[in-house]
Write a structure and sequence with these properties.
heterodimer; A: alpha/beta; 2 domains; 11-stranded mixed beta sheet; 3-stranded antiparallel beta sheet; B: mainly alpha; 3-stranded mixed beta sheet; two-stranded antiparallel sheet; 7 helices; globular
Chain lengths: 376, 230
């Protein structure tokens, strides 16, 4: 390629990037502006299932509050509508119900490992409480994350919240928050789990709920599918939902398995929690964060817990097993995924190499005399 | 943590290390030097970031070691022209990374490739177009991300947003390292592909000397970097 052609190609490339400026802006969690909107997920009969303020792609998976698994089969970007197909019921891990009361069965549980928290979209705020939906440098989302951290600490867990801002709220935010996440993992090993705290951007009523007799916001769990830890993280999400559904029904809205990585390749115990939306009050999101801490504690470390109906009445005592005692297949699936990826890479490498001899010399890094002669 | 998950973490690290070593090895480094650099990147990643000022940190594995490699490759560049090309490619890829961060959709699922790899592809494309060699691609990849991060931090400061600059803060899995390695891989793939399309190397008229392809007759011209095959 001539030098002139290189300049022209690079110039066109930069222009193409710059033109994105005028393309319809997609700001996912910030989609509350009228003109941008959010996706509505409907089943094949046209019945509305939920809303999603993030890009919805074909093959994304959605596990509803009643544990039905749907897969996205078509997306209408104009109308912001996605059609999903029912794929079957998800079987969540069993949660044992006990006969006695919590006090009688209270036990000391060994809580090894730290729970690490950070906020990728650190500007996210709650308009009714913060006066704005976005406050660069430190939004209301930090207050919700603090409530979650404090509630975890009250339960004897060493929870750490890193309040590093990752502004601006653009495509680089996850890249910057990746540094925060790694820094946390580096400083606070062993890691029990690492959670990225967000709020959603769909209309507020979608997230309004009552848990244990109190008004609060629901919580959506987001799992990234584009990484080797997807299965392991999905198992954690199912475990958390299983405990919450038994103990505090109404708390978990749903689980969304989207096409991003969301830095979840860093740990096989990492999830995104969305506490309410920009239209809910921060206080209601903080309340649900405290109940969520109770659920996460028992889902991770086990122990007994008093269940409550949505109206606040006692509904039984439960003893979830620690997640490490569940049968887990996520590790094996992840390794298989890595091996397949590596095999694919090697396949491309072989295809690009002229022949087995050249391929071998590339892999070993040594060119034989014959190779050199061929080249000269 | 269950054995399966522990093995998964170990396998991830081994794959990253192995692939990284093979890529670094392609840039006029011996096998041993490539292993040493990858080891330095991994071990350096475990060391906490070094504070360089208020809200300004640098990571050894994610930024210092890649920068040392950049300086080494820059010094080893065949000609002044290759250096100039690498420098221009670095500045342009920084611009590309900055613009991509700014104007690409903010959620990772909206683009085909995860943002962490997009920067590598951008730096790789620009690095290859301008540098025309694996070395220049690596330089463009690493410096592109570092300069773009620096630019964003300065912009945030001017806007009064107190963010933290952590150069290469994610260590071995930082976009800095990924961009550098991916840029080399791209140069390799594009170089090989072009060579196959044109039915053989374009360097038949060149001689292999001091680790570089040089034009015969001592003319070290602008092509000493070699079209993606160096």
């Amino acid at each position: 390629m001539s030098r002139k052609a290189s300049w022209v190609a690079a110039f066109c490339f930069l222009i193409a990037i710059a033109l994105n400026w005028h393309a319809p802006n997609v700001h996912a969690d910030d989609w509350f502006e009228e003109e941008l909107g959010y996706y509505t997920l409907v089943d094949e009969a046209g019945k509305e299932l939920t809303m999603m303020a993030r890009e919805v792609l074909v093959k994304d998976k959605y596990i509803s509050s009643d544990n039905k698994c749907y897969s996205v089969i078509s997306v209408d970007k104009e109308k912001k509508k996605a059609v999903v197909k029912y794929m079957g019921d998800v079987k969540l891990p069993e949660v044992e119900e006990l006969a006695g009361s919590v006090d009688a069965l209270a036990q000391q549980v060994d809580k090894r490992g730290n729970i690490l928290l950070y906020c990728t979209h650190s500007d996210e705020s709650y308009a009714p409480s913060d006066g704005t939906h976005s406050r660069p440098g430190g939004g209301g989302i930090f207050d919700v994350a603090e409530a979650f951290r404090d509630a975890l600490r009250e339960r004897g867990i060493n929870a750490v919240l890193d309040k590093t801002p990752h502004d601006p709220h653009d495509a680089g935010a996850y890249r910057r928050s990746r540094q925060t996440a790694i820094n946390l993992i580096r400083q606070y090993s062993p890691v029990a789990a690492i959670f990225d705290i967000h709020r959603d951007a769909v209309p507020g009523y979608v997230y309004v709920t009552r848990v244990a007799g109190q008004p609060m916001t629901k919580v959506r769990i987001v799992v990234g599918s584009r990484n080797q830890n997807r299965k392991a993280n999905e198992e954690l999400a199912y475990k958390i939902k299983a405990v919450a559904d038994k103990v505090y029904p109404g708390l978990i809205k749903d689980i969304y398995i989207g096409a991003g990585a969301y830095n979840q390749e860093l740990s096989p115990r990492s999830l995104i929690f969305e506490f309410g939306t920009h239209e809910n009050s921060k206080e209601s999101a903080q309340r649900s964060a405290r109940y969520m801490a109770d659920v996460v504690n028992k889902a991770m470390f086990g122990g007994t817990i008093q269940g409550k109906t949505q109206e606040g009445e006692n509904k039984g005592t439960y003893r979830p097993r620690p997640i490490d005692e569940e049968t887990q297949r996520g590790g094996g699936r992840g390794i298989l995924w890595l091996v397949l990826l590596l095999a694919f890479g090697i396949g491309i490498f072989i295809a690009l190499s002229g022949g087995p001899r050249e391929m071998f010399s590339k892999i070993t890094g040594n060119s034989s005399d014959k190779d050199r002669q061929d080249r000269e | 943590m269950p054995l399966g998950l522990t093995l998964l973490i170990v396998a991830t690290i081994l794959v990253l290390f192995g692939v990284g070593q093979r890529i670094v090895d392609r840039m006029r480094l011996s096998d041993k030097t490539a292993v040493l650099f990858m080891l330095a990147i991994f071990v350096g990643s475990l060391i906490p970031d070094i504070p360089l000022g208020r809200n300004f940190y640098i990571n050894i594995g994610g930024a210092v070691v890649p920068l040392i490699l950049v300086i080494y490759l820059f010094a080893k560049a065949g000609t002044g022209m290759e250096r100039a090309r690498a420098a221009v490619a670095a500045v342009l890829s920084a611009l590309g990374v900055y613009l991509a961060g700014r104007y690409m959709p903010s959620e990772p699922e909206t683009i085909m490739i995860d943002p962490n790899y997009v920067y590598g592809v951008i730096a790789g494309v620009i690095g290859y177009l301008f540098g025309r060699s694996r070395r220049a691609s690596f330089i463009a990849g690493v410096l592109g991300v570092l300069l773009a991060d620096l630019g964003q931090w300065v912009e945030n400061m001017l806007r009064g947003i107190p963010t933290r600059l952590r150069l290469g803060g994610a260590g071995a899995v930082d976009a800095v390292v990924i961009a550098g390695l991916l840029a080399v891989l791209l140069a390799e793939v594009v170089g090989e592909f072009r060579e196959r399309i044109q039915g053989g190397t374009a360097k038949k008229a060149m001689v292999y000397q001091d680790g570089s392809f040089m034009k015969k007759g001592g003319d070290d011209g602008g092509n000493a970097g070699g079209d993606g095959n160096e």
